[in-house]
Amino acid sequence: MKRVFGVKKEKEPPPSVGDASERINKRGETVDEKIKKLDIELNRYKEQIKKTRPGPAQEAVKSRAMRVLKQKRMYEGQRDMLYNQTFNLDQVAFASEGIKDAQQTMTALKSANKELKGMMKTVKIQDIDNLQDEMMDLMDVSNEIQETLGRSYNVPDDIDEEDLMGELDALEADMGLETEADGVPSYLQPDKESDLDAELHLPSAPIGHAAAPAGRSNAQVQAEDELGLPAVPRASLRG
User: Fold this and answer.
1) For the stretch 211-225, what's the b/e string if a residue is b when 16 or more beta carbons lie within 10 angstroms of its beta carbon?
2) Distance (Å, rounded) from C-alpha 84 to C-alpha 120?
3) 72 and 43 Cβ atoms separated by less than 8 Å
4) Which H or E run includes 31?
5) Do 64 and 45 meet the contact criterion of CB atoms below 8 Å apart?
6) What does UniProt give as the signal peptide span (predicted)?
7) How far from chain centre, in Å, is Cα 123?
């Protein structure tokens, strides 16, 4: 059958934008090389024109330079056209890449949307509310258990709180009486010195005149005033 009807030839895929841009860039590089060669030739003719005198020889050199200049202008036009084609291909490639990126983004969004819908089916608002209510009930039961375990076994149940408050007020009043006289404790106040001496078993201070120094009698000491001078009799002061 293949020999009779032959084999169908497969069509070659059309060139891509990148392939077309690469081909045009290569053509542009070839044109640039030709323009550089023509520039070198023009410079050589310019030097010859400067060196030759006006006449037929100089005119012949000028005609050859004009021919090279026309070729250069033609190649420059082709190069500009190729650059414009490359620019257009680059714009098309940029737009194509943008569309591909948009397609990939849409595909990713669709996949994520499908996954979210599947996850939402397993999570319900009512289930979350029920779970929160159960957690609150468990926390209340836990607090009751802690309060029950924290009860004291030594405190009798028949104690009146009002009596306890009265005793507390009485203690505060006693403490206030003990700390009078600008906050000085009662055991440091002056009217308690005798009780303190009795508690410490200290002898009381002697009442009367102090003992006379050695070599002096008590009569002599009593006859002197506070400065150690002889005391003046009261009769002389009255006279």
Assistant:
1) eeeeeeeeeeeeeee
2) 54
3) no
4) helix 17-51
5) yes
6) none
7) 34
Instruction: With cut-offs at 50, 70 and 90, classify the pLDDT of residue 165.
Output: confident
| Predicted structure pTM score | 0.40
Amino acid at 133: D
What span, in angstroms and rounded, lies between the C-alpha atoms of 9 and 26?
A: 30
C-alpha span between 41 and 45 (Å, rounded) = 6
Give the Cα separation of 65 and 73 in Å (integer). Answer: 12
Structure confidence at residue 238 as a pLDDT band (50, 70, 90): very low
User: Given a cut of 70, is residue 50 above it in pLDDT?
Assistant: yes
The tokens describing 213, both together, are 């120094």
User: If DSSP codes are grouped into helix, strand and coil, which group holds residue 224?
Assistant: strand
**Domains of the chain, residue spans:** 15-122, 164-199
Count of beta carbons in the 10 Å neighbourhood of residue 85: 17
Task: Write the DSSP symbol of residue 158.
Answer: T
